[in-house]
């Protein structure tokens, strides 16, 4: 799997959609990762942080696509308000536990994610979400 994943803070859906073709670049505060399915991950993280089922979140339309479609090479989607609030409010120990649980979930499906990398992803994403919320912004994800 070779996927570019960039989480970024933007003022609104319209602004975030401008990142569709080339990514957030320098226009937005962002974090770059790779080689995992971020759409699946944000649903799993929300389930692990605040409960609910994967199926319920998918049926509710999570994650909400802002730009691009399944047949496009790139997509921009929004982190849910519930996930954003949970990430912003989570203590470091809680994030570490979620990271470990996420690694175990992915391993059940035969996907290997390094535990330290998972911990970094969730820690840095929580910091980005906290910063974005203080600025009245939301967090989005660009996938290429």
Automatic annotation (TrEMBL):
This is DUF1877 family protein. The lineage of its organism: Bacteria, Bacillati, Actinomycetota, Actinomycetes, Kitasatosporales.
């Amino acid at each position: 799997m070779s996927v570019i994943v960039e989480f970024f803070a933007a003022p609104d859906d319209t602004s975030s959609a401008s990142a569709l073709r080339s990514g957030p670049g320098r226009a937005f505060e962002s974090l770059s990762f790779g080689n995992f399915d971020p759409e699946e991950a944000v649903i799993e993280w929300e389930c692990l942080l605040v409960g609910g089922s994967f199926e319920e979140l998918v049926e509710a339309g999570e994650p909400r696509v802002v730009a691009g479609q399944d047949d496009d090479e790139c997509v921009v989607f929004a982190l849910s308000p519930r996930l954003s609030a949970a990430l912003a409010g989570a203590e470091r120990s809680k994030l570490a536990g979620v990271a470990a649980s996420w690694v175990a979930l992915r391993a059940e499906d035969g996907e290997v994610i390094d535990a330290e990398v998972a911990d970094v992803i969730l820690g840095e994403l929580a910091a980005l979400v906290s910063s974005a919320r203080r600025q009245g912004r939301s967090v989005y994800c660009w996938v290429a």
